[in-house]
Amino acid sequence: MTDKIIKKKRSLRLKRKLRIRSQIFGNANIPRLSIFRSNRYFYAQAIDDVKGVTLASIDGKKMGLKNNKEDVKKIAIALADNLKKINVAEVVFDRNGYLYHGVVASFADSLRESGISL
After folding, report:
1. Residue 80 buriedness (CB in 10 A; 0-12 / 13-18 / 19+)
2. What is the predicted pLDDT for the residue at 40?
3. Could you list the residue ranges forming a coiled coil in this record (predicted)?
4. Sheet holding 32-37, edge to edge
5. Which of 77, 78, 92, 95 has the fewest CB atoms within 10 Å, measured from its CB?
């Protein structure tokens, strides 16, 4: 792809990210679950926006799992266990500008199956 196309894709994702982020907010009871996906790995963290602290996080790279649907399901199950340890049953899903399909949708569905409501 050319640089012009890459810049356009990044700017469109940034617009989506800011539009989504302006509408959602997390607190200690219902934290914001922010995700990041690179071409290789998948990351997620639960954030308390009132205090500005991360309550729980998961790193696909440290777990040795890639950014595909099967591995993201394992990541979601591990994050759900971490959230249950800190007594969090509900989160606000921040897809961080990524479209809700593929890996992102698989992650969200696995969280729901693990007992975390989005």
Report:
1. buried
2. 95
3. none
4. 53-59, 42-48, 32-37, 92-94
5. 77
Give me the pLDDT at residue 26, please: 87
Quickly tell me which residue has 């990044």 as its tokens: 10
Please identify every stretch of the chain with a pLDDT value under 70, giving residue numbers as ranges: none
DSSP per residue, 63-85: HT--SSHHHHHHHHHHHHHHHHH
Q: Give pLDDT, residue 1.
A: 75
Structure tokens at 115: 């007992």
Q: What is the CATH number of the domain that holds 51?
A: 3.30.420.100
Is residue 118 situated within a structural domain?
A: no
- In whole angstroms, what is the distance from residue 112 CA to residue 118 CA? 7
- Which pLDDT score, from 0 to 100, does residue 103 have? 96
Number of structural domains, the chain? 1
Tens-digit pLDDT profile for residues 34-58: 999 999 999 999 999 999 999 999 9
Measured in Å, how far apart are the chain's first and last C-alpha atoms?
35
Q: Do the domain assignments include residue 35? A: yes
Asked whether residue 74 is assigned to any structural domain, the reply reads: yes
